[in-house]
Specification:
single chain; 178 residues; alpha/beta; 6-stranded mixed β-sheet; 37% helix; 19% strand
Length: 178
Amino acid sequence: MPNPISPTGRILVGADGSRASVAAVRWAAREAQLRGMRVHVVFVRDKRVPIPHYAPHPRVADADLGPATAESTLKAVVGEALGAQPAGTQAEAVPMAAVQMELADGPPARVLLERSVGAEMLVLGSAQPGGGPAGAAAWAAQSRRHLGPVARDCLNAAACPVVVVRSSDARSAAQPVH
């Protein structure tokens, strides 16, 4: 039976609208349920520099995200992550009351580092490939080199432990790598 939700225990999750962020929210929600904590999901809009068209996995440019679009993206990530549990899991759904959603503006790493103060952990998603035991071992050996700048900055400077959740498919159970 899960612990009652602690008013002070908080797991922070960075969400950017990607499938990996869906997996990170799902993993954080399961962990929060086990620990009796709440989940704080932050979607950061970086209005300083639009993502170039030639980026490997371009998203909608953050500068083009108005508050309504950003809010709907955040709600979609949380809804997809918590709506239905993957097949084969026995976890109960996390109550939406235990999830705090926040829209923030600024450089993503800086915002997440500021919000990490007082959090029990920071959870981020990574879309890096690697299936099976051999893929996982190879990925873990080179993980820092393959992580994006936000994840690297958070690993180096967060005020709490950082968990990077790898997921090639957000519908499957996400596996933590750090």
